[in-house]
Design goal:
The chain is mainly alpha-helical. Helices cover about 55% and strands about 0% of the residues. Helix 2 crosses helix 6, helix 4 packs antiparallel against helix 6 and helix 9 packs across helix 10. The longest helix is centred in the middle third of the chain and has 13 residues.
């Protein structure tokens, strides 16, 4: 498992934790978010496989992840040319904009038995201790309720393999590593339908 370089972690913490010179501008964030629409969808609701919805995501989560991508701590080829052109102010504005949007509405649960198994896996791994009882997230712990199921599967598998970096890496690797494939599938299904 790769850990986040200390310098990047300190820089990201200073960026996100520092009081901005002025408040984030949601309208400017909405305008800048036109760069995101092609993959993350209109109003931050992804229609693309393995790409997360950003609508309703926490402001700090958006900011941290953009900083990680921009610093190269998180790798994603399609994201790189976009984050390279973002200023710190753009990142603050994007965080505020996506946080202001209503989260995606989950699809009706087509497999309640699988969701029950996922709920058991979530309770057994104490997912709510970081992501809250409603899985709406807190601070830098992402909203995972109602997220795309395919993206949740990918993220959990990446954490299990130790190939995902950037925020929560140690905690998520510890949670995901012992998960069986069946538990990963059940957990992703459960969370996607909350």
């Amino acid at each position: 498992m790769r850990s986040l370089p200390f310098g990047i972690a300190v820089a990201a913490a200073a960026f996100v934790g520092a009081a901005p010179a002025r408040a984030a501008d949601i309208a400017a964030g909405k305008e800048k978010a036109q760069l995101c629409v092609g993959c993350h969808g209109e109003n931050g609701i992804s229609q693309m496989e393995n790409v997360p919805s950003l609508a309703g995501q926490l402001d700090q989560v958006i900011q941290w992840q953009l900083v990680y991508f921009r610093a190269g701590a998180r790798k994603n080829e399609p994201m790189q040319p976009i984050v390279d052109q973002l200023s710190n102010e753009d990142i603050r504005n994007l965080g505020a904009y996506f946080a202001s949007l209503p989260p995606p509405k989950p699809e009706p649960d087509d497999d309640p038995d699988l969701s029950r198994k996922g709920a058991q896996a979530a309770a057994g791994r104490r997912c709510a201790s970081c992501h809250t009882d409603s899985y709406a997230g807190a601070k830098a712990a992402a909203r995972i309720a109602g997220q795309r199921e395919d993206y949740l599967l990918k993220a959990l598998r990446d954490y299990k393999k130790g190939v995902r970096s950037g925020g929560g890496q140690a905690a998520m690797a510890e949670v995901a590593y012992p998960l069986s494939e069946e538990e990963i599938v059940a957990l992703a299904h459960y969370l996607a339908h909350l």
